[in-house]
Amino acid sequence: MTLSYLKTRSFRTLLATAVLTVVAAGASAQQTQLNPQAKRISDEAIHADLESYEATQGRIQALNDGGRPIRDYHLSKAQCWLDVSFHEYTRNDRSAFPQEALTESEKLIVDMENGVSPIPTDTPLVNDAKFLRGDLWERLKVIHGTPGFACASQKVACGEVELVHAGNEFNQQQWRHSKPYIQIAEDLVNEAEEAARLCGVGPAAPVAIGPLIANVLFEFDRNGRKDIRAYSLESVDRALATIANEKRELAGVALVGHADRMQGKGFDYNQALSERRAETVREVLISKGVPADKIRFEYRGDTMQVQQCEGVKPRAALLECLLPNRRVEVRFELAQ
Question: Does the predicted model carry a pTM greater than 0.70?
């Protein structure tokens, strides 16, 4: 497996005329500074920044060549910070995000180069990025410290960085621009959980670190089967397929119904709406072959919002932003 950043076509294209900068002895303690956005108007300025990116990539490559594996949490995180910095730089992000993300990458590189141990695992919300999807942050946190973390560390690291990336995009251009990065982060969380669950064991005897989780999403103020976002049911099908492929025994399924924070009809209405959604998903699971006696459900109304969407307008955009709150969380519990 090669470093993902080196495989990025736009990166290679933009660096076609750049010269690799060899980092001199002692330079690792210095912070790389990109040209301010206002000065990125000449070939010389852009060329200098691209050389900085190339040099930073070279340092990551040197750490890898020196024996630190790509799957290492801190090497992966340095790579992902570099990736998102360069991505936003090429999109002409006028904020401090490209510089601050690059700095986070470099901090980790310096610690690895100097043999610091332990290296911090915190993930700062650089450029005052919005904290989004607390549920995804919590799922990543659970994987830290588990036996499967060694296999999932690359996905965990990049999932954390992509959540910050999404929060920065939310601040810059609101929900429509953050949504793709939220989806990337959610995919990484799912992949991390799977990698952790299967870590160090053969396919005939996987060990679960926790339940498989899927979220079924509903249209605003709706609770019928036809009101489910079709693509969200794919997460249920993937979980059931995983259970079958791993030859696992399903111990039970816990459903938790939710509603978004729009309380036009009141708290009690949202409570009942979240209950009806849970009942609908229960019927969907039964139709897919899940035994009814293994399913239990509860409902929380609008008391557990995973996405706040403050300041999002107009109403149509707000309702779309709040979609992750209109969910039924499906937790497939596996027998040990």
Answer: yes
